[in-house]
UniProtKB/TrEMBL annotation:
It is found in: Bacterial flagellum; Secreted. This is Flagellar hook-associated protein FlgL. InterPro entries: Flagell_FlgL, Flagellin, Flagellin_N. Belongs to the bacterial flagellin family. SUPFAM superfamilies: Phase 1 flagellin. It comes from the Bacteria. Keywords: Bacterial flagellum, Cell projection, Cilium, Flagellum, Secreted. Residues 3-140 form the Flagellin N-terminal domain. It holds the Pfam family Flagellin_N. Its main location: other. It comes from Zobellella aerophila.
Length: 400
C-alpha cells in the first residue's frame, strides 16, 4: 500500500495535536483545581454540580437575610433595654414623689426629671435603624410612628403590622415589633388597675387591688365602687347596686376575687373604678403625662393630696404593666436572636455538606492528575520524536 507524504504528515500532526490537547487539559485542571472543566468531561457530575451550586446559592441568600434580621433585632433589643431602664427610673421617681413630706417645689423637681424621662422614651420610640427606617412603625417605617399633637399628647401614626423576613426556606421571622404593641399594650398576665374618679370631692384613697381568688366567678369583670350617704350613714355599693355596705376607713373590701383597702373620707358621689389592665389606660405616654400633670398641681388640701396619692398609685401599677410588657417584647426579640444562631449553625453544616459534595463531584485528585500529567507529557514527547524520525526517512537512505 502506498502512503503519500501528505497523509503521513497529517496523521502525525493529528497525533501530536491530540496528545498536546490532552496534555494542556491536564494542565488546565491543575491550574483550576477542577476535574470537570466542561460538561462534556463528566455530564452526570456536571449536572449534579449545577443543582448543588444552586442550593448553595439559595442557602447563602438566606444567610445574608439573617444578617439583616439579626441587625434589626439587635437594634430593637438595645432600644428596648434603654426603654426598660427609663421606665424603672420613672418608677423610682414615683416612689420618691409618694413621700408625703415633699413640698410642691420638690414635686415640681420630680416632675422635671420625669419629663426628661418622658422625652427620652419618646425619642427611643422614634428610633431608626441607621438607614432612615423607623424601628417601631410597622410597615409605615418612612415617617416617625409617634407624633405629638397640639396639646402635647402623643399619638401613634404607624400601623399594627409586624415586619417579617424569610430567614430560611421554612421560617418567616418577625424582625421588628410595632409601637402599638410596645408602648400602648399590656401583657396578657397583667392584673387589675384601680383609678379614682377625677371628679371626686372627698379625700378617699385606695391601696391595691390585690387578687384573692382568680377562680371567683366575677374575676375578670370591671367594677365601680360608689359612695353614698343614706340615713346619715356613709356607705358604698358596687356598680350602682341598691345594696349598700357601711364604709369603714382602713378596712379592706372584697368582691370578685379582689381586695381593695380604702382610707380617708369619701364624699357622696365619689367613685373608684377597677378593671383588668387591658381595659384601662395602656398607653405609656399617657401614663407619664398623667403623672407629670399630677406632680405639677399644688396639693395643699386633703382632697388634692388624696387625688395625688390615688394618681401615683394608679401610675405605679400602669408603669409596672408597661415595664412587664416591654420586657416581654425584649425577651421575644432575644429569643428570635437565639433562633437565628441555631439556624446559622444548621445552615453552616449544610454549606459544609454542599462544599464536600461539590468537591467530590468536580474537584481534582492531584495525585491522579500528576500521574496523568506525566503520562501525557511522555506521550506528547514520543509523538514529537516519532514524527521527527519518520519525516526524515527516505528511500535514498537505503540505496547504495
Amino acid at each position: 500500500m502506498r502512503i503519500s507524504t501528505l497523509t503521513m504528515f497529517e496523521r502525525n500532526a493529528s497525533s501530536m495535536n491530540r496528545q498536546q490537547s490532552e496534555f494542556l487539559k491536564v494542565g488546565q485542571q491543575f491550574a483550576s483545581g477542577k476535574r470537570v472543566l466542561n460538561p462534556s468531561d463528566d455530564p452526570q457530575a456536571a449536572s449534579r454540580a449545577v443543582g448543588v451550586s444552586q442550593a448553595k446559592a439559595v442557602t447563602q441568600q438566606y444567610m445574608d437575610a439573617r444578617i439583616t434580621a439579626r441587625n434589626a433585632l439587635s437594634q430593637e433589643e438595645n432600644v428596648l433595654n434603654s426603654i426598660g431602664d427609663a421606665i424603672t427610673s420613672a418608677k423610682t421617681l414615683m416612689v420618691q414623689a409618694a413621700n408625703g413630706t415633699l413640698s410642691d417645689a420638690d414635686r415640681g423637681s420630680v416632675a422635671s426629671e420625669l419629663r426628661s424621662i418622658y422625652e427620652t422614651i419618646f425619642g427611643q420610640a422614634n428610633a431608626t435603624d441607621g438607614n432612615g427606617r423607623y424601628l417601631f412603625g410597622g410597615y409605615q417605617d418612612n415617617s416617625p410612628p409617634f407624633v405629638k399633637g397640639a396639646g402635647g399628647t402623643v399619638s401613634y401614626e404607624g400601623d399594627l403590622n409586624t415586619r417579617e423576613q424569610r430567614v430560611d426556606a421554612s421560617r418567616l421571622m418577625p424582625v421588628g415589633d410595632n409601637g402599638n404593641t410596645i408602648f400602648r399594650s399590656v401583657h396578657s398576665s397583667a392584673g387589675y388597675v384601680a383609678e379614682a374618679n377625677a371628679g371626686n370631692s372627698g379625700n378617699v384613697t385606695f391601696k391595691g387591688p390585690l387578687v384573692l381568688d382568680a377562680a371567683d366567678p366575677g374575676y375578670g369583670n370591671a367594677f365601680e365602687v360608689s359612695f353614698s350617704v343614706s340615713g346619715g350613714v356613709l356607705g358604698y355599693s358596687l356598680d350602682g347596686g341598691a345594696t349598700t355596705q357601711p364604709y369603714k376607713p382602713g378596712e379592706a373590701i372584697t368582691f370578685g376575687g379582689l381586695s381593695l383597702t380604702l382610707e380617708g373620707t369619701p364624699a357622696a358621689g365619689d367613685s373608684i373604678k377597677l378593671a383588668p389592665a387591658k381595659d384601662m389606660n395602656t398607653d405609656l405616654f399617657a401614663t407619664l403625662e398623667k403623672a407629670i400633670a399630677a406632680l405639677d398641681s399644688p396639693s395643699g388640701g386633703a382632697r388634692q393630696q388624696a387625688a395625688l396619692a390615688n394618681t401615683l398609685n394608679t401610675v405605679m401599677r400602669e408603669l409596672d404593666n408597661s415595664l412587664d410588657n416591654v420586657l416581654t417584647v425584649r425577651a421575644s426579640a432575644g429569643a428570635r436572636l437565639n433562633e437565628l444562631d441555631v439556624v446559622d449553625t444548621v445552615a453552616g453544616n449544610r454549606m459544609l455538606n454542599y462544599e464536600q459534595t461539590l468537591s467530590d463531584l468536580v474537584d481534582l485528585d492531584y495525585v491522579q492528575a500528576a500521574s496523568e500529567y506525566s503520562l501525557r507529557m511522555v506521550g506528547l514527547q514520543a509523538a514529537q520524536k516519532s514524527f521527527v524520525d519518520i519525516q526524515g526517512m527516505s528511500l535514498f537512505n537505503f540505496l547504495r
